[in-house]
Design goal:
This protein is of the alpha/beta class. Helices cover about 35% and strands about 15% of the residues. It comes from Triticum urartu.
Length: about 350
């Protein structure tokens, strides 16, 4: 598969879980439900195409996206950076910070975010510099070093204490690069369908500009997005086209092409040599039927990380937090349970959020 396609992580809603493992989500029972698009209560910076989306979970999370200023050393003015903030911050447990995959956005977390929040976790969803819904009108650099510094300055300004960093697909490479360079900012790591063994896109700075721009034009195209989305999931339920539209919504912003080309021509991520430098406790989560990155790499990653446990999700493709959000949330909560959280509060949160049927 082409590198751009294999790193894609367009979202899709969850199919029904097997009966013996099904969970009822008390506070989020309408995960994946459709709803009419509201007209005027979305953030003004979102593309107008958001009003055509029918997915209820996506609409609710979209309404919570905001931009916060992040000052970096590579931009004269603060970058208005998109994220979803927790409803309340707490000091009893480490915050959970959700990244996303290649050329995606925080909307990738539309099904799992409310489950984690309902369980009592302080949950953030952050758009990686160059993707998502940040304002990049000034065209700041979006190479690896800039992405790393931007995330660090976001953490330093708003989170301010060690976090559980969650990276799906290429977001796992972002998380490894960040954790190795800023270990004081990361308490634990969670990798989902981790794309960490690719060797980047190689340096294309001397290539004629029209070549990467042509590639980006294809990346944005509806046929490729349809194909990539179909490939990413074990089972595609109804509403497939709507989910493709959710996955490409951020591509409609005017600076998306420039930001993506800048990332591509500067080489992309190659964190193979950084994996063994990770010191934090890690959860490796993988779909057993991942059609993009073989789950054989899950075993390799578990072995190479000094402190990692592996969990797999049955009948699930590349993005468990989208396709099987209840199972993904349960694995996250099990991994974090008891560490820095009051056990009584944790038990109460779990019992009120995940109820076996």
């Amino acid at each position: 598969m082409p590198p751009l396609l294999t790193l894609s992580s367009s979202p899709a809603p969850p199919p029904p879980a097997p009966r013996r493992a099904r969970f009822r989500v008390a506070a989020s029972a309408d995960v994946g439900a459709t709803a009419p698009a509201a007209g005027n209560d979305f953030p003004s910076f979102l593309p107008r195409a958001v009003e055509r989306i029918r997915d209820g979970a996506a609409l609710r999370l979209a309404k919570r996206i905001e931009r916060v200023p992040v000052q970096t050393g590579f931009s004269k003015s603060p970058i208005p950076s998109s994220c979803v903030r927790p409803l309340k911050q707490q000091q009893s447990a480490d915050p959970v910070v959700l990244l996303h995959g290649f050329d995606s956005s925080c909307l990738e977390w539309r099904y799992t975010y409310p489950l984690l929040e309902d369980a009592g976790l302080e949950t953030w969803a952050v758009d990686i510099l160059g993707w998502g819904f940040s304002n990049l009108e000034t065209r700041p650099p979006c190479d690896i070093v800039s992405k790393r510094e931007h995330l660090y300055q976001f953490w330093r300004s708003y989170i301010k204490r060690p976090m559980v960093l969650v990276g799906p697909s290429l977001g796992a490479a972002v998380a490894i690069d960040f954790a190795v360079n800023y270990p004081e900012a990361v308490s634990k790591l969670i990798f989902i369908g981790a794309s960490v063994y690719a060797e980047g896109t190689k340096d294309m700075t001397r290539m004629p500009k029209f070549v990467p721009y042509a590639g980006v034009f294809v990346l944005k195209s509806l046929p490729l997005r349809l194909f990539a989305t179909r490939l990413a999931f074990y089972k595609i339920p109804d509403g497939f086209f709507d989910w493709v539209q959710i996955g490409r919504l951020h591509c409609l912003l005017p600076w998306w092409e420039d930001a993506t080309v800048n990332f591509m021509i500067t080489g992309g991520y190659n964190v193979i040599n950084q994996i063994k430098q990770v010191k934090q406790k890690c959860l490796v989560l993988w779909g057993e039927d991942d059609g993009i990155i073989s789950n054989k790499q899950a075993y390799r990653l578990q072995q190479e990380l000094p402190s990692a446990i592996l969990r797999q999700v049955g009948q699930c493709g590349h993005i468990p937090h989208v396709e099987k959000p209840r199972e993904a949330a349960k694995h996250v909560l099990d991994f974090l349970g008891g560490d820095g959280v009051d056990k009584a509060d944790q038990a109460s949160s779990l019992s009120s959020t995940l109820v076996s049927t």
